[in-house]
């Protein structure tokens, strides 16, 4: 079996400028993803998909390859993760390089570990899923979510307004860290999440969506706490 790690890292981040190479506790945040992938020993190649020469230089410094740059089509704000994966796979296929499994690992995912990557690949293979990715439980039941109706507030689901939290079904959200994919099936269905997808559950301490400076600061605090607890 051959495996490819794709780390998407576009240069045009808007909410946090130069987000993918911004220093995170002393080194570019993309370095954490590259190192986790390389240290896992799972991949025939760890590559970074970028349109930016500075990102490419940093990716090479930490051990990843940048065999080609993104096209204009996949460098826009509207390009999806699947668009990037598809382009990368097609470019490799054009030089007769094929991979059974792909891991799309985000550049801003410092909490990802080699162990989690290995655990997810094992589930993908043994359970014969199309894709596997980490999820995090919602901290509060989504059935009790609230919304504004004009200036008044009300439940999205009034039928659960009197339900006890512990009696409601647990819900989860995508951790936004990585996706293991069966290459052929992914390309066939042109999507990551299918009706045959699996997951691993991680805690809120093991992940953080990083969309603004507050998120960034929280992520650094979480990371430091996790490292401290390992000592």
From TrEMBL:
The keyword Lyase belongs to this UniProt entry's keyword annotation: no
This entry's Enzyme Commission designation comes to 2.7.7.81
Question: What superkingdom does the record give?
Answer: Bacteria
Any stretches that span the bilayer, and where are they? none
Molecular-function GO terms, alphabetical: N-acylneuraminate cytidylyltransferase activity
Keyword Chaperone: yes or no?
Answer: no
Gene3D superfamilies recorded for this chain? Spore Coat Polysaccharide Biosynthesis Protein SpsA, Chain A (3.90.550.10)
Q: Which UniProt keywords apply?
A: Nucleotidyltransferase, Transferase
Against NCBIfam families, the record matches this protein to: PseF
Stated name of the protein: Pseudaminic acid cytidylyltransferase
**Source organism of the structure:** Flavobacterium aquariorum
């Amino acid at each position: 079996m051959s495996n490819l790690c794709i780390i998407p890292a576009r240069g045009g981040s808007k909410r946090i400028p130069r987000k993918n190479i911004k220093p995170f506790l002393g080194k570019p945040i993309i370095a954490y993803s590259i190192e986790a992938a390389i240290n896992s020993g799972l991949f025939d190649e760890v590559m970074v998909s970028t349109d930016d020469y500075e990102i490419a230089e940093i990716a090479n410094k930490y051990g990843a390859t940048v065999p080609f740059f993104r096209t204009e089509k996949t460098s826009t704000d509207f390009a999806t993760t699947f668009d990037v994966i598809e382009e990368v796979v097609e470019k490799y296929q054009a030089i007769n390089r094929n991979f059974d499994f792909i891991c799309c690992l985000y550049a801003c995912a410092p909490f990802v570990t080699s162990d989690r990557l290995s655990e997810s690949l094992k589930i993908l293979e043994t359970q014969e899923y199309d894709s596997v990715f980490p999820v995090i439980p919602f901290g509060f039941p989504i059935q009790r979510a609230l919304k504004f109706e004009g200036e008044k507030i009300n439940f999205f689901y009034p039928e659960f307004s009197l339900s006890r939290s512990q009696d409601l079904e647990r819900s989860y959200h995508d951790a936004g860290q990585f996706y293991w994919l069966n290459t052929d099936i992914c390309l066939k269905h042109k999507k990551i999440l299918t009706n045959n997808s699996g997951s691993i559950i991680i805690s809120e301490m093991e992940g953080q969506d990083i969309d603004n400076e507050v998120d960034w600061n929280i992520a650094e605090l979480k990371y430091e706490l996790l490292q401290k607890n390992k000592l």
